[in-house]
Amino acid sequence: MSRLRLVIVSLAVLVVAAGAFMAWKMLQPPPADLDLARTKVTANGAFSVSVAPEAGEATQGPLHNWVVTVKTPQGAAVDGATIAIDGGMPQHGHGLPTSPQMTKALGDGRYLVEGVRFNMGGWWEFKLVIDAGGVRDAVTFNLVL
Amino acid sequence: MPSRLHGLFASVALLVALFGLSACQDDLTPEQIAVAKSLTIDALAPAPDDPSNAYDTNGEAAALGAALFADAGFSANGEVACATCHLADRQFQDDLPLGRGVGETDRRTMPLAGVAWSPFLFWDGRKDSLWSQALGPLESAVEHATTRTAFARRIASQHGEPYRAVFGPLPDLTGAPASAGPFGTPAEIAAWENLDAAARDAINRVFANGGKAIAAFERTLTPAQTRFDRYVRAVAEGQKPADADRFTPQETEGLKLFIGRGQCINCHNGPRLTDEHFHNTGVPAAAGRKPDPGRAAALAMLDGDEFNCLGPYSDAAPEQCAELRFMSRDEHAFEGAFKPPTLRGVAARPPYMHAGQIETLEAAIDHYSAAPAAPQGHSELQRLDLTANDKAALLAFLRTLTP
């Protein structure tokens, strides 16, 4: 087999294997040990963050809002923060279907995030990057719908 | 093989076959029943209010809208009404690969039942309300090819009384050109630009109100109950389905595939069997045409549309325009992406896809199983390698979604 042919065949095998792996991944249930906590400390320990849908429980389909509460690890409310929102479905390799934004500070370290939608059932990541008092830290929440 | 051993094998095989058969009957798991229930018409919430249309639930507006929908006078050649392509006895679509008005469009005519639940309209979602959607084809050179002043003049001459009853007085149109608008012929565009801002605004308002009346009518077109809905309702309530509603083992198998290994439910979810989002599923370009950018080209149109939720002709406060404000504007992610149409009624509605590229439902299932590379952008599909039995089961299930 010529070298070129070997490269082409190897690439084709890789592509098929990658496709099969993605297909297999999409069919897997979320990991059994997935941390579904709605209150977490950010990656570098700067903030304690809680998330909750503004009303009821999050469901697949409708556009809805979340309330994010930011505190110091000692429990004091953090005001004046800005929050960037990202996320997606790790098992499907796509992001959030909308661009949610923090639109309002509600006081007592609470912030309104508008424009959240989960358009499929399954495991979603909801990633927040929080900037407050010159400190930036990030946290990822898991949701299973 | 000794005959005793042979017999033993045969008995075991029979037992396995019987067990297999019983496992394919109505025995959906509680989880599968819960998921199936989420797809039924019983799970359909009332149509959401459209805050950008103050008349969306107004009965008089709906009656006017029905008249406008049927009036071929709103077209350049006097022959094209909304109802020309949206045929009431054909799920409000036309069975053609590409819609035909004054000329031929680039896309398949979409069915209308349940359209009031859609946050974004058209295959690419380039409109953010039903009333704004209704205005697009009127000004399209290949659909109605009418203009805003021609529209306002016909409202005044043919629909004046019901219009005034809903929307109040019409502006004085005595000086308005017979046919002028921003998307017409060069002469029509020039005539439009010659009008002063106040005159254009007054005519735009009549045009927008016409759209709002049509939207009020279209809001009354709701999805009908199907055998699938009745079957799942009975199973979920622990009742025996009526004989006419009972699923065959093949249909049940198809339902399981639809919500399981087939992954159809990823995009075709909720009671209208669409997630209302935009997906690249690698559908080939229509014969002889360039690949269609789909949603990627719609984002700038939405933001630049004077008839969007945030525009001067919307009845919504800006904070009520959440769909538009928080829509993803990631053009790259939406390259070649289209909205999954509702699957209610799908079996009676060939051809399929945004330009009718796929002639039969069998071929559509083959497409999702094979998951070919996209003509542009990246297909979200993963190969399923469905067997002939799988495909037949999915087909049988999809047929239960037609009333």
Q: Can you give keywords for this protein?
A:
heterodimer; A: 145 residues; alpha+beta; 5-stranded antiparallel sheet; 1 helix; 42% strand; B: 403 residues; mainly alpha; 40% helix; 0% strand; globular
Describe this protein's structure.
The complex is a heterodimer of chains A (145) and B (403). Chain A has one helix and nine strands. Helix content of chain A is 17%, strand content 42%. Chain A is elongated and about 70 Å long. Chain A has 145 residues and is α+β, with helices and mostly antiparallel strands. Chain A has one helix at 3-27, and strands spanning 39-41, 48-53, 64-71, 82-89, 94-95, 101-107, 110-116, 123-132, 135-144. Chain A has a five-stranded antiparallel sheet, with no helix packed on it. A four-stranded antiparallel sheet of chain A has the order 5-4-8-9, with no helix packed on it. The relative contact order of chain A is 0.21. Chain B has helices spanning 3-23, 30-37, 59-70, 82-85, 130-139, 148-158, 160-167, 186-194, 197-218, 227-236, 249-259, 295-303, 322-325, 361-370, 388-399. The model of chain B is unreliable at 12-25 (pLDDT under 50). The A-B interface holds A 19-20, 22-23, 26-27, 60-61, 63, 92, 94-101, 114-115, 119-121 and B 35, 38, 119, 261, 263, 265-267, 269-270, 275-277, 322-323, 325-330, 333, 371, 380, 382-384.
